[in-house]
Amino acid sequence: MQHQNRRDFIKTTSLAGIGLLAGTNAFAAGFPTVRVAPDKRNFTSPAIEATIARIKKSVKDPELAWLFENCFPNTLDTTVIFKTKNGRPDTFVITGDIHAMWLRDSSAQVWPYLPLIKQDDRLKDLIAGVVNRQTECILIDPYANAFNDGPGKSEWYSDHTDMKPELHERKWELDSLCYTVRLAYHYWKTSGDTSIFDARWFQAARLIIATCKVQQRFTDRGPYRFGRTTSWSTDTVPGNGYGNNTKPNGLIHSIFRPSDDATQYPFLIPANLFAVVSFRQLAEISEKVLNNTAFATECKALANQVETAIKKYAVIKHPIYGPVYAMEVDGFGNCLLQDDANVPNLLSLPYLGAVKATDPVYQNTRRFVLSDSNPYFFKGKAAEGIGSPHTLVNQIWPMSIIMRAMTSTSEQEIKAQLYYLKTTHAGTGFMHESFDKDNASQFTRKWFAWANTLFGELILKIERERPHLLNV
Question: Contact, 54 vs 47, CB < 8 A?
Answer without folding.
Answer: no
